[in-house]
């Protein structure tokens, strides 16, 4: 019989566990902004502090999860956020103070609205008790931006912060992407309230349609199978919906030619034999006439912009229209649709592939004559350029070499003007999110800050800003931001010493009266400013190229330099023009391949 007695614990009994508090954490409004951004996965923001946004910046200073890039001008913050978003499919965040800080964001907000870029703009506002009194640095930024945002939210109570930030993020990223503004009063930032996450989103009426109606998809597939001259007219919506792989599958299954708009460059590989190029005012002849002579246009995430259609009443006169867009307001706005399809481009293309397989069981399409016509146009009117006869560099050749030496994995952000069109034409885009530009608004100064934002989002890619000497002077202060924050972008200034696109129009349509378009930055001028010295002053590497045999070496040096930004001042001919061209206000059939050289249009 065992004499061992059971062990007895001599330790005092543990007190019962206190129930975990279910009470939400109390945070200041500023703390709630920061916590909300982190909960949404935001890792990078661009901004510039001021009096009305100081409380948030005070919170931000103590945080290590979100990288803040201090810009030199609020417009730079907005465009950087755009470049960040457009290159990575993530939300770009720009922060500014009240008054002029907020109004300096307006151009970038409008730009994002036109080009469907998911942008979250956060602005400080004066104390709620001072609103409406014309207080120092007070502007009604909600009222100012109402026409150029998807939504605007004014926050006066710290308890409303989580729902405001979460709602803004949701609206910016769903449906047709776009900018949303959250304006937060200074007292809402300073005061405290319980932080409730996830917040309840109260968005009555906001229900974007992503799945299209099956009957419309079937009708589109049947029209495609029956057509003789169809074209896929691809817009930036295909990139925003990340539908490039599906588009490639659709094109290859159907054998239909594809055109990609300025906003859609890279949505379909330039090297693909079915790609006709970019349509529009400065599009390729096969792309322009491909649309013009078609009998069926399937528009995917495109909006029949005037730069594509020219004189609307004369655009594609014999074509039926299938218009696919996630924004119902775009369908029928410019060209009536025979088959309107509201839905996300990716979802619609997937459904269209399946419907096509069924449609061709009943009808065998034959596009052979169509391809004969298009192939003839490609042979007769290839995209090209002539070397200038003034001994200066060819801007087209410079840009072409940048693209060839960098390759399709690079990112190319352009300003606005001739250099923008040459970059769209002569760089070969093989993947989406590699081409960033201001398409709808045409914002000069977009290039440098957008490239900066793209490099923050995609640090392992080579990022070029292809800029004009006019555009560069609008936002080049962001070189300081790049140097201080180790953002080694490459900047190619296509320096023709003028506002080049305006000068081209003056040459062609105003009898050569070059009224106030000379900038005195290039060949034979005072060169004010000297862009190489300017780059050096900012701590960047400055290079000037004046001879053709120096072009490749300069580009290679830029590619090899990754410890600071690089600025190359390419001195190009001011007389170089963008061709092909369709003059504004006329039908696209009047496309000119070069000056005084127009192709024949097949009229039926």
TrEMBL record:
Please name the pathway: Amino-acid biosynthesis; L-valine biosynthesis; L-valine from pyruvate: step 1/4; Amino-acid biosynthesis; L-isoleucine biosynthesis; L-isoleucine from 2-oxobutanoate: step 1/4
Q: Required co-factor?
A: Mg(2+); thiamine diphosphate
Gene3D superfamilies on file: 3.40.50.970, TPP-binding domain
Quote the record's cofactor note: Binds 1 Mg(2+) ion per subunit. Binds 1 thiamine pyrophosphate per subunit.
* Gene Ontology MF terms: acetolactate synthase activity
**Polar residues: which segments have biased composition?**
1-12
**What is the E.C. number?**
2.2.1.6
Where does the Thiamine pyrophosphate enzyme TPP-binding domain lie? 415-570
Which residue stretches belong to region Disordered?
Answer: 1-25
Q: Which UniProt keywords apply?
A: Amino-acid biosynthesis, Branched-chain amino acid biosynthesis, Magnesium, Metal-binding, Thiamine pyrophosphate, Transferase
Q: List, for all copies, the residue spans of the domain called Thiamine pyrophosphate enzyme N-terminal TPP-binding.
A: 28-142
- Domain called Thiamine pyrophosphate enzyme central: residue spans: 217-350
Instruction: Report the catalytic activity.
Output: 2 pyruvate + H(+) = (2S)-2-acetolactate + CO2
Family label: Belongs to the TPP enzyme family.
NCBIfam families, sorted = acolac_lg, PRK07789.1
Per its UniProt record, what PANTHER family does this chain match?
A: ACETOLACTATE SYNTHASE CATALYTIC SUBUNIT, MITOCHONDRIAL, THIAMINE PYROPHOSPHATE ENZYMES
From the Swiss-Prot or TrEMBL record, give the protein name. Answer: Acetolactate synthase
The scientific name of the source species is Conyzicola nivalis
């Amino acid at each position: 019989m065992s004499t061992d007695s059971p062990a007895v614990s001599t330790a005092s009994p543990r007190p019962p566990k206190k129930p975990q508090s279910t009470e939400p954490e109390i945070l200041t409004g500023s703390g709630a902004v920061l916590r909300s951004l982190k909960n949404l996965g935001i890792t990078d923001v661009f901004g510039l502090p001021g009096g009305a946004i100081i409380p948030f910046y005070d919170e931000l200073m103590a945080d290590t999860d979100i990288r803040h890039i201090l810009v030199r001008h609020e417009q730079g913050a907005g465009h950087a956020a755009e470049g960040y978003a457009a290159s990575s499919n993530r939300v770009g965040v720009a922060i500014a103070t009240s008054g002029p800080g907020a109004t300096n964001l307006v151009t970038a907000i409008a730009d994002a609205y036109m080009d469907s870029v998911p942008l979250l703009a956060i602005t400080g506002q004066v104390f709620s008790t001072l609103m409406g009194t014309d207080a120092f640095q007070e502007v009604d930024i909600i009222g100012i931006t109402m026409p150029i945002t998807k939504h605007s939210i004014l926050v006066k109570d710290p308890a409303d912060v989580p729902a405001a930030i979460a709602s803004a993020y949701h609206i910016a990223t769903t449906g047709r992407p776009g900018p949303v503004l959250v304006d937060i009063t200074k007292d809402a930032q300073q005061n405290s309230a319980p932080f409730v996450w996830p917040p309840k989103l109260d968005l009555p009426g906001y229900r974007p349609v992503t799945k299209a109606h099956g009957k419309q998809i079937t009708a589109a597939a049947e029209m495609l199978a029956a057509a003789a001259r169809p074209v896929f007219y691809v817009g930036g919506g295909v990139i925003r919906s990340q539908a490039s792989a599906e588009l490639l599958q659709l094109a290859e299954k159907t054998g239909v030619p594809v055109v990609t708009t300025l906003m859609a460059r890279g949505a379909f590989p330039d090297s693909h034999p079915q790609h006709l190029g970019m349509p529009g005012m400065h599009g390729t002849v096969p792309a322009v006439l491909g649309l013009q002579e078609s009998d069926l246009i399937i528009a995917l995430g495109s909006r029949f912009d005037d730069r594509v259609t020219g004189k609307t009443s004369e655009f594609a006169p014999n074509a039926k229209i299938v218009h696919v867009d996630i924004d119902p307001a775009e369908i029928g706005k410019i060209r009536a649709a025979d088959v309107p399809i509201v839905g996300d481009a990716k979802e619609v293309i997937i459904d269209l592939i399946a419907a096509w397989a069924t449609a061709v069981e009943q009808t065998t399409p034959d596009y052979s004559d169509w391809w004969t016509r298009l192939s003839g146009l490609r042979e007769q009117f290839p995209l090209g350029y002539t070397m200038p006869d003034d001994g200066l560099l060819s801007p087209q050749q410079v840009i072409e070499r940048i693209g060839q030496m960098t390759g399709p994995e690079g990112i190319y952000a352009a300003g606005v003007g001739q250099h923008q069109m040459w970059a769209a034409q002569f760089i070969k885009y093989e993947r989406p999110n590699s081409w960033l530009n201001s398409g709808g608004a045409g914002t000069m100064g977009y290039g440098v800050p957008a490239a900066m934002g793209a490099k923050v989002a995609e640090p392992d890619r080579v990022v070029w800003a292809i800029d004009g000497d006019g555009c560069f002077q609008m936002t080049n202060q962001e070189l300081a931001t790049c140097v201080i924050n180790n953002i080694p972008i490459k900047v190619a200034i296509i320096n023709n010493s003028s506002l080049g696109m305006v000068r081209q129009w003056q040459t062609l349509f105003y009898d050569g009266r070059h009224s106030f378009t000379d900038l005195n930055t290039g060949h034979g001028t005072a060169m004010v400013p000297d862009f190489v010295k300017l780059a050096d002053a900012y701590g960047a590497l400055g290079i000037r190229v004046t001879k053709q045999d120096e072009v490749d070496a300069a580009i290679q040096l830029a590619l090899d330099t990754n410890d600071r930004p690089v600025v190359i001042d390419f001195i190009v001919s001011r007389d170089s023009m963008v061709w092909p061209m369709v003059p504004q206000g006329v039908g696209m059939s009047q496309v000119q391949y070069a000056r005084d050289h127009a192709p024949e249009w097949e009229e039926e």
